[in-house]
Amino acid sequence: MTVTTMMTNSLSIQGRAKSLLGRISRDNLVIAVLLTSLSTLMVLFILMPLWAMLTKSVQNSSGEFVGFANFANYFASNSLWVSVGNTFTVGVLVTAVVGLLAFGYAYALTRSCMPAKGLFQILGTAPILAPSLLPAISLIFLFGNQGIAKQALGEHSVYGVIGIALGLIFWTFPHALMILTTSLRTSDARLYEAARALKTSPIKTFFIVTLPAAKYGLISTLIVVFTLVITDFGVPKVIGGSYNVLATDIFKQVVGQQNFAMGAVTSILLLFPAIMAFAADRWVQKKQKSMFDTRSVAYVPEPNKLRDSVCLIYCSLISVAVIIVLGLAVYGSLVTFWPWNKALTFNNYNFAEISTYGWSPFFNSLTLAGGTALIGTTVIFVGAYCIEKGRVFTPIRQVMQMVSVVPMAVPGMVLGLGYIFYFNDANNPLNVLYGTMAFLVINTVVHYYTVGHMTALTALKQLPTEIEATAASVKLPQYKLFFKVTLPVCMPAILDIATYLFVNALTTTSAVVFLYSTDTIPASVSILNMDDAGQTGAAAAMAVMIMIAAATAKLVQMTLGKLLENRTQAWRKR
């Protein structure tokens, strides 16, 4: 090869390189860096802990590979089948009851003209502000061995399936209500006009118009409630007694017996029904089609004295039950020594005298919630933006979209156990995080990642594609478009994500019960410890403090939401 030919080829290569660099814009480079960073975080904090847990399930206590011997030993135990049967019994029972109660409540809110709808909406969703431990403690005050209404259960005990079911019905009700209210709120009035024109009875109209329109929302509700029930740890731990379920089995294997291999096996068993429920929910979402388009007419209920009266009585009964459970927890936290000395006092709130941790768990929870809201909202929204609005690296964005929905199918205890196996390893460079507050923040962000991600995607999909095209045509950098248009328009959704993360970080138990240290113990775990020590009043007091903090966060959200609506959402109003 001559020197001239070599120089020609070199110039040609340089020209192609410059052309390639010219095609790679600064925006795409930024997107590439963000996608690389986010995918690395997903691998490290989602996939690797799950892989570590799967690996642990096929090893013995010495770390040697034993295949499926652990599974064989576990399946040979009669106690396993008892726990599986109990888990599904509670799951089916609570799901059926909550489905019926929440559907009736949502129907009353959306399809009637009863008074005080706003108040009933607040009361119906109030339980979501409390940790799942709070209804269990209230039920002990109400129906326990020294409860004020223990005779109501007759010969039956609240410490078992009855207490677990009642506690989980209370705790999962607002989750079901929010989904069903959204499902029933959007209806086409023309269908009801056609039914009236054909002289169809109200009952028949309900079954041929109302129910089919809401069926996918109802199915999704049942799946979500079932998943929440079988994976909850707090209620069975506090009021379950000797009634074992899979979630408490994991805790007993890991904390009680230090048998991590069997804990991993139980976690995998708990993972299967959660994954199946999640897959069913995704199938339902794909099947669901919008029944409300630009030609539709929004349904507005007309006054009906009989229906409105029935709805008012129905919602009043459920609201009274909510008030009793929440109020009893507050009352129990103010009683000197239940049930022998019912004089009111604030001594139960003097945590410095009751617990060695004092007030530090409560402030730890505030720190955890604040860090989760701040870091989680930033990572989730930026990640969703890169996946939805990125103009390049389509295969990578599709894979990341699939990985981003994995946390929803993983129960909190399973995720926490995976974090122990992966990060509590001296050979892991990330071992320095173990036991720190940052570790709890990361785990909580991952645990609730999917819901925030879906919320962000929904908000981003509302932005017209013409905005992106117009920005590209005038050569406006994508980062400027992000800060000038995308961020202000999506600000309400961002606030929703931040509040969701904050409240759930305050109330979560299962995700962090294995991961805290003496310096980072959260309030939810402190409630468990005080209840185990027989300090029920102090446990109720800490649960009430969590509820107050969560309610304050919701009030701040409502106030900021109003301000943001006036400043960033004026374009929505004609």
Structure description:
With 574 residues, the protein is mainly alpha-helical. 72% of the residues lie in helices and 1% in strands. β1 (335-337) and β2 (341-344) form a beta hairpin. α2 packs across α15 and α6 (133-143) packs across α7 (161-185). The longest helix has 34 residues, at 78-111.
List keywords for this structure.
single chain, about 575 residues, mainly alpha, two-stranded antiparallel sheet, 24 helices, 2 strands
Helical content stands at: over 70%
- List the strand order in the largest sheet: 1-2
Number of strands: 2
- The helix tally amounts to 24
Report the principal-axis shape: globular
What is the CA-based Rg, rounded?
27 Å
Which structural class matches the secondary elements? Answer: mainly alpha
Q: How far do the termini sit from each other?
A: 72 Å
Mean pLDDT: 82
- DSSP strand content: under 5%
Instruction: Give me the strand/helix succession.
Output: HHHHHHHHHHHHHEEHHHHHHHHHHH
| Low-confidence segments | 16-24
- Main β sheet profile: 2 strands, antiparallel
How do you describe this structure in short?
This protein is mostly helical.
List the helices and strands and how they pair.
Blueprint: H1 3-23, H2 26-56, H3 69-75, H4 78-111, H5 117-125, H6 133-143, H7 161-185, H8 189-197, H9 202-231, H10 234-239, H11 246-256, H12 260-287, H13 305-334, E1 335-337, E2 341-344, H14 351-354, H15 360-389, H16 394-404, H17 412-423, H18 437-447, H19 449-461, H20 465-473, H21 478-489, H22 491-507, H23 523-532, H24 536-568
Antiparallel strand pairs: 1-2
